[in-house]
Specification:
The chain is α/β, with parallel strands linked by helices. Helices cover 49% and strands 17% of the residues. The protein has 11 helices and 11 strands.
């Protein structure tokens, strides 16, 4: 089945009442962990990268690696740009071969967000590529691939979401409902009332960012209300780095890089499996 568009993935998820997990990645071991977990649990999966991660790996290399790694698998896999910061950067990923792109104009006025997103949609749809847009302010608890620390959280206005979808022609919508990127300082209070109204007004697949730390029961409730894609990033990086530090401290002087990296990769695989199950996407491939 291999590489597919996010449109195909999210339409299936919406009809099947589950969400497709999207994991950000920036290296081989990270990608292996995601792919191995998804194949083992027979789950569809989206492999994502923010601009900094695309630049780190090189966009052509990123896409080629995903395609090579999934060529013989029997699960559907998406390749997605997360939080494209500009029109130019977002369109550049079409050149690399991404099957889905997100332009994030949520920090601009609604009018400017609509105008730029509409232009991204024109180009992406001409290439058969899915487009995700964002309305509202999804905070950033710490500096990370998605951007610099920003504790602001702005709840999306359902009426603005409706207008945004109609005027841009996007395929999926990330709306701020109290979620944030990074590690939550306290239990997130998601506005399910807002989510319900957004789903009613837009009737397109919805995306929940900042999946790290949201309780499983809240993730599953969001899925029943139209969320078809959930993003996870920090939880994987945290598990990788903590395990790597522990391994290095226990094996000082061992220069076998593959041996040192393997426990971190296995930890990330374990985390990926946990979150696949949270999304109820296991055995949905």
């Amino acid at each position: 089945m291999s590489i597919v568009t996010n449109t195909e993935l999210l339409d299936r998820a919406k009809n099947g009442h589950y969400a497709v997990p999207a994991f950000n990645t920036c290296n081989l071991e990270y990608m292996q962990a995601i792919v191995f977990a998804a194949e083992e649990l027979k789950s569809p999966v989206i492999i994502s990268a923010a601009k900094s991660e695309v630049d780190y790996m090189n966009g052509h290399v990123f896409v080629a690696l995903v395609k090579a790694m999934t060529a013989d698998l029997h699960i559907p896999v998406g390749i997605h740009l997360d939080h494209g910061p500009t029109h130019e950067e977002t369109v550049r990923c079409l050149h690399y071969g991404f099957k889905s792109v997100m332009y994030d104009g949520s920090s601009h006025s609604l009018e400017e967000n609509i105008a730029v997103t509409r232009e991204v949609v024109k180009v992406a749809h001409a290439c058969g590529v899915h487009v995700e847009g964002e309305v509202g302010v999804i905070g950033q608890a710490a500096n990370g691939p998605e951007g610099k620390q920003n504790d602001m959280i702005g709840i999306a206005d359902p009426k603005e979401c409706e207008a945004f979808v109609k005027e841009t022609g996007i395929d999926s919508l990330a709306a701020a409902i109290g979620n944030a990127h990074g590690i939550y300082k306290k239990k997130p209070e998601l506005r399910f009332d807002i989510l319900e109204e957004i789903e009613r007004r837009t009737n397109i697949p919805l995306v929940l960012h900042g999946g790290t730390g949201i309780p499983e029961e809240d993730l599953r409730k969001a899925i029943t209300m139209g969320v078809c894609k959930i993003n996870f990033s920090t939880v994987m990086r945290k598990g990788c780095l903590e395990t790597l530090v522990d391994t290095l401290n226990k094996n000082v002087g061992d220069w076998d890089l593959m041996k040192q990296m393997t426990p971190a990769r296995e930890k990330m695989k374990e985390i990926a499996k946990q979150h696949i199950i949270m999304c109820m996407s296991d055995h949905k491939a």
